[in-house]
Structure formats: structure tokens, C-alpha cells
Amino acid sequence: MTSICPFSAVAVGDSVLVTQSHDVFLSFTWSDIVEVEKLDKAMRAAGLRVFRDSLGIKSFDGITAELRTALAESKVLLAYYSRRFPTRYACQWELTSAFLAAQSRGIDPRRRVLVINPEQNGDHIGPVELQDAAYVQRPRKDAEMAEIVARVAEVVHATASPLGTAHSAAPMLPRLLHPRRFVGRYRELWQIHSALHARELPPAVPRVSSAMVVVRGLAGMGKTSLAEQYAFLFRDAYPGGMHWTGPLDGADTRAQFHASVRAVAAAMGLRVHGMSPEQVRAVVAARIETAGEAVLWIVDDVPSGLAAEVLNELIIPSALVRTVLTTRTSTPHWPAPVVELTGLSAEEGEALYDEILDVAEDERAAIARLVARSGGHPMIITSSANSLRARQGALHGADFVGLLDGARSTVADVLRGDIDHCGPTAVRVLRLAAALSLAPIPPRLAREVIIDHRLPEAVEELTLKGLLRRVGSDWDVHALVRDTAGTEDELTRAAAEAVMRLLPYKEIDHLHRHAAALAEQECVPDAQRAQLLRAGLDWFREQGDIVAARAGANRILRNGAASANDRIAAAGALIDAGDYTRAIDVLAAPDTTNDGVRARLLLAQALDHLGRYDEADRWWPSAVPDWMTGRERVDALVAIAVGHRLRGRFQPALDLLADEPLDDRARLERARLLIITGRIRPARQLAAEVIAGFDEPELLTHPLLLAAIGVQAEAELTFDLVEFTLHDENWDRVENELRATRDKLTRLLGKESPLTVAAAVRCARASVPRGRPKQALRELGELEPVVVKVFTDRHPLCHWLRYSTAQAHAQLKNYDRAAAVLQDLLRLQLATIGEHHPDTMMTQLDLGIALAMTGRKAAAEELVAVAERRIGEALSWRADLRARAAVTRRLFVLPQAAWSLFGLIDRKWWQPKPE
Questions:
Q1: What is the secondary structure of 486-554 as a DSSP string?
Q2: Which of 58, 93, 152, 669 has its CA 20 to 30 A from that of 266?
């Protein structure tokens, strides 16, 4: 049995947010007015200033300015929490607002929200913090009433300031701006909130995940509506704003989610083109972390049966993001609490009929029978309420009861009946929806397909019947309604044609999803299906989403009517995603290789990526045609320049990139070429300009920034080696500057920031020319896993780290170990940067020396001969390397014993005596 008066008087903050005018805000439902008036009278008699709404708010009306002001100016809220209390929106809003206002000021809400429970138990009360000892039972005697009033007064007098408000300045989601006929579910709303904010609950409340919650229920049970109501009612708990993703189609769940996240990133002003889905999620999370405010992210209608690793991708990796997922069935063993959504209660069902007539006992019993017969399914009860609302004014009590008792009690029967009673234009709207994806329908698309002046009236008809709802400016039709309505072939084909016409208009949302859905409709001609698939592929490539583009490419390649151009575009997407072998298979077909420059260019690139340079040579075009413009032209120029570089043709590559307007990719390729040809200072400047363009801290892992960091480090390391000799006093200054830069970046950005890691590699490498091989090996060994994690083992920084590791082993005369490291490195460099890159040549030369020092003279001589020739051809400006290669080459004519002299000779050129 609950104690009659558990309220305690605890002093709270003294700051005043608004001018106080009330002690108590009395929250109640008008069905309890008799008991509430007694309570009101007793508190006023005790000298308490009480605010009580004297007019009442109808079920689906908004909150008045008077109520908002009164609640903010009250010290405490006292809720008369009967079973009907949580079915009324006004009651929900009042209690929730008071609760969040207290929380936002660091006050225990139980000191500001007091509850009287007139029921036998507290299982109807939400949130959980107000259950058990947090409420008192209804007073049945004058002495009990007096005790409750005294305790309320004690809490009021211990409170120095009013509740105020917890107002979020973040814009409201467009889908929340339209009126909703939502009733009840208050307990479930608080279950969601408690799960998302478990870390902030009092110690007595059981802990669950504080980041995510799953809302699970059968189709049509109201999961989306519950998520919307949570976002609307609890919006002030999320000053960082809210994001909505979904509904998600089963075939492309990942792609649809990542496209939504990419759109959020773009709205945040982040440059994410070319970033992987994981990277985009990470930069969005980083931006949210930078802002430092809680964000709500709703992922709606997640398909059933997804693996845990897929579900993990639907969560933004930030402690500030609270995620609500709605689904029909959840994945076992996925660590998220579940809010089970079942049918409406009798009290909740009754609330849907409030505005139709004053419900008497006979009508209340009829509603309860319908709720029991239908399992409380919201679609069934709402359909009945909508039907009765349409006949409002012509109903009497007996008619009301008869209609309810005769109402259909299965969802399928209800939807078929509702659709059968729709006008022909309204039915066409539903059949159009059935042919499209689950995404909302842009009205412009509907107007292009259904050319009928009655369309606005049809949409209004569907809205009143609950078969269509407005989501922002778009229209949404529930999946069950779509399935029941079915499709119409002529309408579906017209929709396909309309989507193709509208796709160039980027401001119209969801068209790419509708194009993908229409491409799966068998009544659409094959050629048109191929066009729709190509449109989707182009959209994803334009967004820089290589994962979704690859999925689109695979769909095109499965379509027998795809043109050669479509297949070439698909091959380009495969190359973007690293699927070079499959791209080659597609491009080598006669219908593509005969299709001109695009196919030849892509085929050559794919072959080069696999190191098949001789095969690629025949496909490289000699120039970029004038008809190629914009991004396509820059892509082609960079591709041909890279092809030249990999073959040692550095000046033709530079000439290609000399006069064209350059984007970041072209500028970095030009910088690489400048380094190779000895023009270090302009290379450093180009790399620095690219790095400066990524000034957002969230973009530290952008692929272009990582590449620019690598190019800049390459330029600076090359500059250091060329400009300073071993005994030059500048080495001390350079090394001190390197370490100071590394330490500063570590403090500002952390140890695993790409900029920090690049600086740390340079510091560790500096120990090699200073003759500190043991220190170098220790530092390089600690850095290697971090470099691989941040940059991957294909990045130049990882190459240089391993090259320096081999040099340190050589300084310690551990030539076997040096040779092993260099052999692995050479294989990696040949596969990534090619045999003509200076780094590859240097590795080849040093590997030859290491092999010679271990007695493997034949293998060594071949390597050194090739390296000497290539260094002489390509690196004439590197006198140190040319001399070292020449000396090494001449030693091969001497017997093995003479190689003991190499250590003395080599120290002059590169290797100092270890300290």
C-alpha cells in the first residue's frame, strides 16, 4: 500500500526564469472534475495560489498560450492521475513539460511534479519515476485531504522559483507540424524516454541502454505515430534537434539510411562527397559532438530480420544521439530495450470518440466491445471513428451503439470497406502509392500522373478517412493501405514516365527511391526500367555514395535491356567501389569497348589498378575529347595523368594538368608529380592549400584530406633530405620543430587524429638519419598499428614508416630483417604506386643492398641495376640517390669480401654511425 503523503520538502535552485504568479498548477481530466474541485478548494483555503483550467481543451486542440504561461509561472504541478488522465493530450503535455523543465535545470522532477492516484494501483502511471513512492492515493477523508494539502504547501514553500520552460530552439520536423489524432500511449511514450535517458534516472530505476530503443508492434499498430508523438511531446529534451529516416524498404535498407545521413551531413554544411558511409556517419557524429547538444534520431519502419551488424549501422556513433527504431519484429540478442506496442485500451479508444458526442454508459460499453473484438487495433477503431465523425449531427445514442456493434473487426475488412467507399480519383491516388516506394509521395509527381482537377478533393477525402496523411509538404500512405489498394498497370507506367521527367529537378525529394521501386514493376517496359535504374545510379554517384552506387550498378547489369552506356556507367561505379575485376569483365564486352572514350578510359584504369599495365596500354586514350566537360573532364584528366605517372612519363602528366581548372584531386596529383620532378616548394604549397580547405574538425578523416596530408608529408620529408646534410645544424632545428608540432597536434586533436599521426611518423623517421636506430624502431613499432588503423597499409605514410624501419635494421647491421621488411614493402608499392614512383625505386635499391649484404648477390644485382637505370631516367635531380646507386652497382664486380667496405661508403651518402 502506498504511503498517503510521500511528498518531501526539498530546497531547490533559487534562480527565477519568469515572473511567478502561481504556487500550484492543477492538471486533470474533466471526467474527474468533482474530486478535483474539492482538492482545488482545499488548497485555496490553505492560502495556496492555484491555477486550474476553467475552459478545458478538446481532445485534438492545441495548447493555449494561457496554459503555457501558467505552467511556466507555477512552482509545482499537481496531477490528478486517473486512468483517463494519460489519454488526453493536454494532460500529457502539462506533465511532460513540467518534468522536462525541472530536468533542464538539474532539479529532481519528483520535487516539482506531484501525483495523486485515485485508482487501485499505479500501473497506468508514467513515467516510472512517478510510480510507487512518488504518488499519493486519493483522499477519502477530510483529514487525508488536509494532510495532502499541508505536504503540497511544504513543497511549495521550500521552492524559491517557478518551473520555467525547457524550450528547444531547434526547428520542428516538418512531419510534426500537421495536426495528429493521437490518443493515449502515454505509458509507452515514457518507456521510450526512460530507455533513452537511463543514465539520468534516479538510482532506484533499473538501467537499460541510454542510446537507443526499439518500438515493436504489428503492422498498423501505430509505431510511426508513437515515434512522432514522442518527438513532438519531448522535443524540448533535444536542443540539438531531431532527424527522421525512413520508412526503409527491405531491399536497400543500408543504402536508404546512408543516403539520409548524407543528406543530414549536407544540411550541416559538411563536404562528404567521396566519403564512405562509415565516414559520413562519423563526421555527422563529430559535428553533433562539437555542438554538444542532445539529438533525437528516429529510424522508422526498419525491415524485420536484419542482422545485428546491419542494425549497428543504423546508429549514429555519438553519446549525444538518442535513437528510436520502429519495426514489426526485433532482432534477438541485439542490445536495445524494446517497447512493445499492443492495441489501444478501452479508455484510449474512447478518447477517439470524444469530439463526436458526449459518451454515455451505453456508448462507452459499445466502444469497449469494439476494442475487445478488434484487439484494440488503431486502424479499426480510427476507421469507425472517422465514419461516425462524417455522420456527426445525424446520430443518436442507439444509432451510435448499433454502428459500433456492426463495425468490421479485421484490418483487411476495414481497409477494403474504406477504399471501396472512396471516389475514383482517391482510389487512383492509393494505387499510385502502391506502385511507388514506401517513401512519401511528392504532390508534383501525383499531379504529373493523375491529371484531374478533383485531385485536391481526393486527397482531402483520403485524409479525413485516415488513408493518407501529410508529412511536411508530401503525402504518406501506410503500407497496409497500399497493399490493399493494389496497383494499376496504366497508372504505374505513367508514374515511370513522370519520374523520368522530374528527376532533373533536384529539389523534389524521394524521386530516386520511387525510380528504383518502379524499375521493379513488371508492367514497366524493360527499356524504361533500365532508364530508371540508370537514373538511380547517377544520383548515388553524384552524391558520392559508392556503396549505394555499386548496388545500383549490379541492378543495371542484371537488366537485360541495359544499353552499352548504362553498362559503362555501371562499370564506373564498380571501379569507384574497388571491384576492378568485375568492371573489366563488363568493359571488355564488344558492346562497350566499341563505345568510345569512356569505356576505353575506364578499362585502362581498372587494369592499372590491378597492376596489369601492359594490357592497359592499348586502351588509354591519347587525349581527353573536347566534348567532355565539368567533373567528367577533370576525372578523365586525372586518370590519364595517373596513368602517365605510373609509367614514368612525368612531364606529359604535368602538361595535362597545367592549364585546366583544377579540383582538389587534380591539385594533389599535380603535387605528386612536382615532388617526383624535384619541384618541392610548389608541391608543398598545393598540398597545404587542399588541407586548408578542410577546416571543419569533423572532416579529419576525409579521403582527400588524408591524401593531402600524405602528399604534404612526402614533400616535406623529401625537402628535408635534399636540403639538409647529416651534420648540418639545421637538423636539430628541424627535429625540434617536428616534435613540437606533433605534441601540439596531440593536445588539440588527440593521438589518432590523421594530422597527429602524420607528424608522429615524421618525428620517428627523423631518428634514422640522426643515427638512433633503436629509438627509431621503438617509435616506429608503436606507430605502425595506429597508422594502419587511421590510413590503411596502402597509404604513403605506412610505406615510409616501413622503409624507415628497414633502414633502422640496416643501421644495426640486421640485414636479413631489413631485407624482409623491404621485400614486403616493395610488393605493396608495386601494387599501389607502381614501379616508376621514386619511393618504389628507393625501396628497390635498398632491397638490393640488403640482399647483397646477406650474400644473395644475384638477386641483388638485378634489383640494383633496374633501380639505377630508373633513378637515372626519372630522378636526375636527386644527386645523392644517383651516386648511391652508381657506387652500389660498381661494387658488384668485386668479390663478396669487398662488401665489408659498403658500410663505410654508404655512411657518406645516407647511413650514419649509430649513436
A1: ---HHHHHHHHHHHHHHTT-TTSTTHHHHHHHHTT-TTS-HHHHHHHHHHHHHHHHHHT-HHHHHHHHH
A2: 669
Over range 836-842, report the average pLDDT. 80
Number of domains in the chain: 5
β-sheet bridge partners, residue 475? 441, 470
**Residue-level pLDDT at 416:** 92
Domain check: are 135 and 206 in the same one?
Answer: no
**What per-residue confidence (pLDDT) applies to 261?**
93
Residue 915 C-alpha cell reads as: 649513436
Share of the chain above pLDDT 90, in %: 31
Domain membership of residue 142 (yes or no) is yes
Provide CB contacts within 8 A for 506, sequence distance 6+. none
Query: Quick one: 92 and 152 in the same domain?
Result: yes
Helix extents (H) in 73-218: 89-104, 142-157, 186-196
Contact yes or no for 903/852 (Cβ under 8 A): no
pLDDT band at 339 (very low <50, low <70, confident <90, very high): very high
Residues 134 and 208 in one domain: no
Q: Kindly state whether residues 184 and 305 are assigned to the same domain.
A: yes
Contact 275, 282 (CB under 8 A): no
Asked, for residue 435, whether it belongs to a domain, the answer is yes
Percent of the chain with pLDDT over 70: 85
384 and 464 together in one domain: no
For residue 703, cis peptide bond before it (omega within 30 degrees of 0) = no
Neighbouring CB atoms inside 10 A of 57's CB total: 18
Q: Which pLDDT does position 17 carry in this prediction?
A: 42
From first CA to last CA, the distance across the chain in angstroms is 81
Cell 571543419 appears where? 696
Beta bridge partners of 469: 476
Q: What is the CATH number of the domain that holds 771?
A: 1.25.40.10
Q: How many helices (H) and strands (E) does the chain have?
A: 41, 12
Range of the domain at 473: 424-627
Range 253-274 burial, b when 16+ CB lie within 10 A, else e: bbbbbbbbbbebbeeeebbbbb
Q: Per-residue pLDDT averaged across 399-406, rounded?
A: 79
For residues 247 and 301, is the Cβ–Cβ distance under 8 A? yes
Q: Are residues 186 and 307 in the same domain?
A: yes
Q: How far apart (Å, rounded) are the C-alpha atoms in residues 896 and 890?
A: 12
Maximal CA-CA distance, the chain: 117
Rounded Cα distance, 480 and 467, in Å = 10
**Residue 197 has what DSSP assignment?**
T
Same domain, 332 and 455: no
326 and 359 assigned to the same domain: no
Which CATH number covers residue 286?
3.40.50.300
Do the strands 212-217 and 474-476 form a parallel or antiparallel pair, or are they unpaired? unpaired
Pairing of the two strands 338-341 and 212-217 = parallel
One-letter amino acid of 293? E
Residue 587 in any domain: the answer is yes
Residue ranges of alpha helices (H) inside 771-832 are: 773-791, 796-811, 815-832
Q: Which amino acid is at 48?
A: L
- Count of alpha carbons within 13 angstroms of residue 470, beta-carbon side: 15
Type of residue numbered 382: T
Closest-CA residue to 27 (of 48, 52, 50): 52
**Helix (H/G/I), strand (E/B), else coil: 51:** strand
What angle in degrees, to the nearest 10, is found between the helix axes of 680-693 and 703-723?
150
Contact at 8 Å (CB) between 641 and 657? yes
Integer Cα distance of 413 and 534 in angstroms: 40
Decide if 428 contacts 450 (C-beta within 8 A): yes
pTM: 0.73
Sequence-distant (6+) residues with CB within 8 A of 244 are 173, 175, 231, 298, 300
- 3-state secondary structure (DSSP) of residue 236: helix
pLDDT-derived band at 53, boundaries 50, 70, 90: confident
- Give the strands of the sheet with 321-327, arranged side by side: 242-245, 295-302, 321-327, 212-217, 338-341
